[in-house]
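If your schedule permits, I should be very grateful for your opinion on a structural question. I would ask you to consider whether the tokens describe a fold that such a sequence might reasonably adopt. Thank you for your consideration; the sequence and its tokens are set out here.
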Amino acid sequence: MSNIPLAEVLGGELVVLLPSLDGAAPTSYMAGVEVMVQQGIGSFAWDVSDWDASAELRSIYASRAVFGVYRFRDTGQARDDFAFVLADTLAVSGAVSAPVILPAMTPTEVLAAAGAGAGVCVYPAETLGVSYAGFLREVAPRVPLLARGGLSAFAAGKWLEHGAAACLDEVFLSGALSGGSLSDLRYRCRSYREQVPQA
């Protein structure tokens, strides 16, 4: 059974999945990352294909934020400095020393991933509603869980109440890193933290 201390590894109750750079300069994300860090959100995941390109930005925030990766599918993508890895398959978990988190949905999948020594990302978490958080905690009480997918601040709070280590979000940014409003991003950060006191 997995004993990964996800809450410690992730450093916060919200992990923001940064969109793929698609050729943009990583420093173009700096203003948005700065807003989130100032608002107390300091856990981020890069698309693994952007990891090397993001080195400068990561070094700037090394003392204020935690950086992991998602879409990890190939052992050739492994690096020594991942804080955590959202992997797509258990087959690559032995390639990294960082804690590995696998996607799962059903109780059987959750227990299988945990039995392999991985943390578990329940995805898509919104599919069965917030009551599923409590049910899953009864079925797998000691499994380190994350929740991902279409979660409002209310739903995230419910997952956290039921023991999830964190919630992952890719829509939280709403275009703020690609020319969208940083003021709106700041408001969303504050709103999230007000509605989710644990964050």
